[in-house]
Amino acid sequence: MSNDGLKRIHSLYTCFSVKEKKIADYILANPKRIIHQTINELADEIGVADATVFRFCKRLGFKGYQAFKISLASEIMSPIQQIHEDIKEGDSELSIAKKIFLSNKRSLENTALIMDERSFKQAVDLLLNSQRIIFFGIGGSSIVAMDAYHKFIRTGISCLLGGDIHFQLMEASQMSSLDTAFFFSHSGMNKHCLEIFHVAQKSGAKTLAITSFPNSILAKEADMALFSRSEETKYRSEALSSRIVQLSLVDALLVNVLVKRGEEGLLAMEHVREAIEDTRI
């Protein structure tokens, strides 16, 4: 277990319940004090049950409160600077490149921490049982939608990619209960994305979303939602750094779908390879 308890709390904070946020706030404000407190003392100080504190530590990926305290102690005594948050104007090109790589790595690790097995399985099953999948995204999210379309067309499942906003609205209006509308939005609050989303809902389509905010309208109203985690830096917005995570989630969904489709999926991939083979020199 790496010594990154405080970073994990920051990363997962938006997903916490009211009680979990109460614990998180106390720990973030008093990290040195926590090291010398028993689980009973901490629970009494915050006003929650011992079991609530224990489950909080488990949610962070630790075996229990003691394991969390050991990690926290090491983190405080030997603070690890978040290199990807420390890009300076005087940095060399290679140094900046390495910091960006580490930032992406951290975002992927944070997302892996919050992935829920049941939700991910349901998302795979939703796509697997779709007669047709249409991918939707606005602005930067349209790039992720295009990548998802480019990949899922290899599964043998009928796929479409939304064009501009008007085309996306029209495509959403023609969906049915046999189709899945797959939405990508970092904020989950984009006006045009939500407009298209509600049209797809009205058409009876099942809805799947990937977003960074569990409390967003898109996350709350979609039939199924998966979440990406990323951090904003001085020279790079949170939305930009979340893209690599969303692309990775798409990869994970794709491979799962192909595995479950078995020979049918392999045959579809082979047809794609044969079709584009002559395009190479």
Automatic annotation (TrEMBL):
All residue ranges annotated as the HTH rpiR-type domain in the record: 3-79
A Pfam match: SIS
Keyword S-adenosyl-L-methionine: no
Domain SIS: 123-263
Keywords of this entry: DNA-binding, Transcription, Transcription regulation
InterPro entries referenced in this protein's UniProt entry, alphabetically: Homeodomain-like_sf, HTH_RpiR, RpiR-like, RpiR-like_SIS, SIS_dom, SIS_dom_sf, WH-like_DNA-bd_sf
Segment forming the signal sequence: none
GO BP terms in the entry: carbohydrate derivative metabolic process
Keyword RNA-binding: no
Molecular function GO terms recorded: carbohydrate derivative binding; DNA binding; DNA-binding transcription factor activity
PANTHER family: GLUCOKINASE (PTHR30514), HTH-TYPE TRANSCRIPTIONAL REGULATOR HEXR-RELATED (PTHR30514:SF1)
Name of the protein: SIS domain-containing protein
